[in-house]
User: Which sequence fits this backbone?
């Protein structure tokens, strides 16, 4: 079966899941009086998926990340990260425009043009020397800027920590990304998309091996720790690292509930977007 047909089926599944979770979230009797609480009305289901993801990570993804680390010297790994980041720049520019961030859209477009040419298909980050710093945007962030609530917290198979808004955003990322659109026009485009996804997952997992190991060692409840870290990091990405009060912040709760507080620390947007790559927990 063609990958595009499989992903279309997944898109329908995610949409149905999103609708079901919104309904379950609105019907939940979970107390949201604590503004620091993450809205997690299906926690038992999420914990089960978390454990399955953890098993898959320990058995397959984490070992692959170690093999990748051992096989490629640091300069080669840096080149792979640069190339993967460069492929995300067109979609980042589109999302910047949709968010009304025209200067950032110009920066993303400039980075793609410079790194795709002078940077040898993105292997070298020449654009940074031109004063065009790296940043990334996606559909989930755009939905947040538009004011759409994030909805209940969910753990996706393979993809890991998420919420309803970001789960739907993943579908938008796949179908809206200009690089994916171009790739699907070619007979072997599906192979390119598979390779891009696998390489992105392994590369990102390699970068956060120590981060996740440290979190696990220091966590009384690893699931709750990752849930909290994910949401704080995601909110910082939505605000582009700005202080909390500088940009509107959508609520994770149903309309009648209070918004969830976000940690004030900022994020270096040149780093991996979160310690939860494809294959996260």
Assistant:
């Amino acid at each position: 079966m063609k990958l595009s047909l499989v992903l279309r089926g997944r898109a329908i599944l995610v949409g149905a899941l999103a609708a079901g979770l919104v309904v379950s979230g609105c019907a939940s009797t979970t107390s949201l009086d604590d503004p620091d609480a993450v809205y997690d009305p299906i926690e038992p289901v999420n914990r089960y998926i978390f454990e399955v993801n953890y098993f898959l990570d320990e058995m397959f993804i984490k070992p692959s990340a170690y093999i990748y680390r051992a096989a490629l010297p640091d300069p080669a790994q840096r080149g792979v990260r640069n190339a993967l980041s460069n492929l995300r720049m067109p979609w980042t520019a589109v999302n910047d425009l949709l968010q009304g961030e025209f200067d950032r859209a110009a920066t993303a477009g400039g980075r793609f043009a410079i790194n795709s040419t002078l940077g040898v298909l993105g292997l070298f980050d020449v654009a940074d020397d031109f004063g065009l710093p790296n940043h990334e945007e996606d559909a989930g962030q755009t939905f947040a800027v538009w004011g759409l609530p994030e909805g209940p917290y969910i753990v996706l198979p393979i993809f890991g920590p998420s919420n309803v808004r970001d789960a739907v955003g993943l579908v938008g990322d796949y179908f809206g990304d200009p690089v994916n659109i171009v790739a699907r026009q070619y007979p072997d485009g599906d192979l390119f998309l598979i390779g891009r996804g696998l390489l992105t997952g392994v590369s990102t997992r390699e970068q956060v091996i120590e981060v996740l190991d440290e979190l696990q060692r220091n966590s009384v409840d690893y699931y709750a720790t990752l849930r909290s870290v994910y949401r704080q990091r995601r909110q910082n990405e939505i605000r582009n690292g700005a202080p909390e009060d500088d940009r509107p912040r959508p609520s994770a709760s149903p309309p009648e509930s209070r918004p969830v507080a976000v940690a004030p620390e900022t994020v270096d947007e040149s780093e991996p977007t979160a310690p939860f790559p494809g294959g996260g927990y």
Q: What stands out?
A: The radius of gyration is 19 Å. The first helix runs from residue 3 to 27. Residues 1-33, 248-268, 273-279 have pLDDT under 50 and may be disordered.
